[in-house]
Amino acid sequence: MKRRAADLTQSELAAAVKVTRQTIGFIEKGEFAPSIALSLRLAATLSSPVNELFWLEELTP
Amino acid sequence: MNDPLKLRTPLWTLIFTLLTYILLAIILAQREYGNSSILAAIAVGFTVVTFSLIGIHLGAQKKYNAKNPENKIQFFGLVPPELRDDDEMTQSVSSLATRRVYIYLSILLPLFALIYVYYQPEPLATLAMFATLSITSILVYWQNIKQIL
Q1: What sign results for the dihedral spanned by CA atoms B126, B129, B133, B136?
Q2: Is the Cβ of B86 closer than 8 Å to some Cβ of chain A?
Q3: Which residue from B75, B139, B76, B147 is spatially nearest to B108, judged by alpha carbons?
Q4: pLDDT tens across A7-48, in order?
Q5: pLDDT band for position B2 (50/70/90)?
Q6: In this structure, are residues A60 and A50 in contact, taking their beta carbons and an 8 Å threshold?
Q7: What is the share, in percent, of chain B residues with pLDDT greater than 70?
Q8: Do residues A8 and A42 touch, judged by C-beta distance below 8 A?
Q9: ipTM score here?
Q10: Interchain contact, A32 vs B89, CB within 8 Å
Q11: How far A59 CA lies from chain B's nearest CA (Å)?
């Protein structure tokens, strides 16, 4: 998981992208689809392209 | 978020809504049946319970606000503290819950109006209908935001 690879806790990542820790938990469990803006903030914080963080199963080869 | 007394859940809205309807029921009962010692005892008990709960709430609120200065709760605020908009996820859950309450009320309100027109219930029964609507709509909202509490 990218967050763990970046050595960040859910709380640290949440603070960095200005959401609650709960929201990070829901995103990681796949129970909440973040907005484009939040996805881009997560990607920037984790130094990772957005499509490595989020993808659609049906579009995955 | 430290919230041992559940200030950011619909619990306190539910309690204060219930208290409001009990107060109205006491006033109505007094108007309908006149003063009685039982009613007076109920009124005294109600006043003690209400002021105790307001005291507990204000105390807990003071503590909560000291620990969460960026996210304060106001006792007389128009927006209830359980209407969560901390970030986009809580906003999304909160919006969905509000939508369900809207659907619930849009069905139940005309139904209750129909019952009122057909049966012309007593004032206390009419008040009970309003109380049921208010309390169940809070419960519908609560049920739908449970996941983010």
Answers
A1: positive
A2: yes
A3: B139
A4: 999 999 999 999 999 999 999 999 899 999 999 999 999 999
A5: low
A6: no
A7: 99
A8: no
A9: 0.81
A10: yes
A11: 24
Residues of A in contact with B149 (CB under 8 A): none
Q: What are the tokens at A30?
A: 């796949």
Q: Please check whether residue B70 touches A, CB under 8 A.
A: no
Using CB atoms, pick whichever of A18, A20, A27 lies closest to residue B90.
Answer: A20
Are residues B90 and A34, on separate chains, in Cβ contact within 8 Å? no
Mind listing the pLDDT tens digit for each residue in B50-104? 999 999 999 999 998 898 888 788 877 788 888 877 889 999 999 999 999 999 9
Q: DSSP label at A58?
A: G
Top residue of A13, A21, A23, A24 to mutate, by most chain B CBs within 10 Å, is A23
Count of positions (residues) in chain B: 149
Best B87, B94, B145 member to test A by mutation, with max A CBs in 10 Å, is B87
Q: At A54, list the tokens.
A: 């989020």
Cβ-proximal residues to B54 (8 Å cutoff; 6+ apart), any chain = none
| C-alpha pair distances (Å), B50 with each of B11, B44, B46, B101 | 15, 10, 6, 27
- Chain B residue with Cα closest to A23: B89
Residues of B in contact with A41 (CB under 8 A): none
In angstroms, the CA B7 to CA B12 distance is 7
**Can you give the pLDDT at residue A7?**
93
Q: Which two tokens stand for residue A47?
A: 């130094």
